[in-house]
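HUMAN: Ready with one sample?

ASSISTANT:
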Amino acid sequence: MGFDGSYRLFERGERVAGRRSGGLSRQLPCALRLAVLGESGFPLVCSLWFGYDGGKLFCATTRQSKLVERLRANPRCGFELAPNEPPYFGVRGQGIATVSSEAAMDLLGDLVDRYLGRRDTNFAQWLLGRTEDEVAISIDIRWMTSWDFRQRMSG
C-alpha cells in the first residue's frame, strides 16, 4: 500500500498538497483524527494510528467499522494530527480516502511496531490476531494547513 513503517510526519519545508508543512516533529506520538460525513449529516470523528509516506496518510481499522462504511459511501474526509498537550502544533487538512484489503496485515504490523514498539504484548497479539478483519485506509492529501504555537508558548 505504500507505507514502509518508518515514522515521520513532514520535514521542514516539505511540500504536501501544495503547501509547506511547517517543520513538524518527526517524533509526534499522536493519533490521526479522521472526520467523515455520518449518515445523519453530522461529522463522525475517529482517532486512528497512522503512517505517512509519499504524500499519503495510511491507517488500519476493522472492515465492519462505521468509519469504513462511511468512507465507502463518500471518500472525502478531513484529518488532524496534533498532540493533546501544550505547546500546540499540528496539521489539518482534507483528502480522498481509499479502503483496501491489500497490504492491510502488513500495515497493521508496521503500526503496532511504531506505536507499541513491540509485538509481544497482550494488546499487540490481540490486534495482530484479527488481521483478517482489517482494511487499510490510504488518504490522498488534497489540502493541508499547519500551525505551531511552540515558540509562542515557550515561556
The chain has three helices and nine strands. The mean pLDDT is 83. Residues 35 and 137 are 13 Å apart (CA to CA). Strands lie at 15-16, 19-20, 32-37, 43-48, 50-53, 56-62, 76-81, 89-100, 134-148.
